[in-house]
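PROTEIN DATA CARD
Card holder: Metalloendopeptidase
Chain length: 394
Origin: Acropora cervicornis
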Amino acid sequence: MVNETTRMVTVRSMTLIFLYFLHSNAKPTGDNDFVLIEGDMMVKRWFADDVLGVTKRGAILNRPNSKFSYYWPGDVSPNGERIVRVPYSLNFGFLSRLFGNKAIEAFNKAIEQYHKQTCLRFEQKASDDTDYVEIFPGTGCWSQIGRRGGKQQLSLGVGCETRGRAIHEVMHSIGFLHEQSRLDRDEHVIILSKNIQAGKESQFKKYKQDTGNVPYDLHSVMHYSNTYFSKDETSPTILSRTDSNMQLGSSNGFSALDVVRINMLYKCPQLQTDLILYLLTIYTADAGYAGTDSKVDILLTGTKGDSGEIVLEATDEIPDPFERGSKEIFPVIVPNIGSFVSLRIRLAGTSWWWTANDWLLSKVEIETPGDKRNPVILPCNKWLKPGDHVILRP
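Structure generated from the sequence above:
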């Protein structure tokens, strides 16, 4: 009986120690002026008000006239290639070893993907590294944004022990924000405010950003899932405009565009093989009122992923696209999506209420990188109303 009582006291004491450990690590140590925004981004209050006003390609911008960069610095490897070194430390002690190290396994699997697809190299902190990321089992999943200077923290707590979640938080630590916070997000997704938890509406804010003409990515690892911040955990809070059944975001890892964004921001040499040029020739039917003044966007899907939603905009060469009987060629630069599978084309909306809305799309020709002499011909001959889309396959 004495032994059983002693055992119960020991277990209770260890549980209390464990709960205290989680509580003490719920926020960055040494600074109470932090706020958690959008569920997993730990930032100082001034940072939330100031820096998040302007972002670049889904990432934060450096402050003007500042000598400090929020990006991790580049270097040259022994073989002469550009690399970006990110020092880190693992703060997992006795309790973590006692209960398992799934978070460490997830982190190691995550950085393996960064090493394979980008020029970022995550290395154990050396004694002379002053700027580094500390990975620790805090309360929940969150990270500070970009290179902060000194020690910065990234939490992989209970429920965060997956490769996809670790990739997401690491992407925050190198400077990236959530995809659905882009200013153009309402052209691609619908926010269902009635289903959002009370008091969490601000988690769906939009921020100014220079997207660098990178398409909106519905399958980014940085995109909210369909039920994020749901009032009952099942009702959707965010849906694709073209397919309400589409699963948004990624729980496993990078999309093709995520890799492009990282390699663009950090000027990685891998970018040379990340991007591929497609030439789309779009034919509008020569029939009465067949042309449109509405926006048109496309999504290319391949065996390795998709292009993200790309708006086909007017240019100097094509000042008034999609007129009756027109034939227009659009050069489209997309990530390496593998072999072409399908094209989704959507009439997104009209420019002015008194202009023509509907569009009679005759056909689309796609010149693929592998066979420029034999373009893929996709017949359509279908009227589209604003909001309608059609999926064309060879």
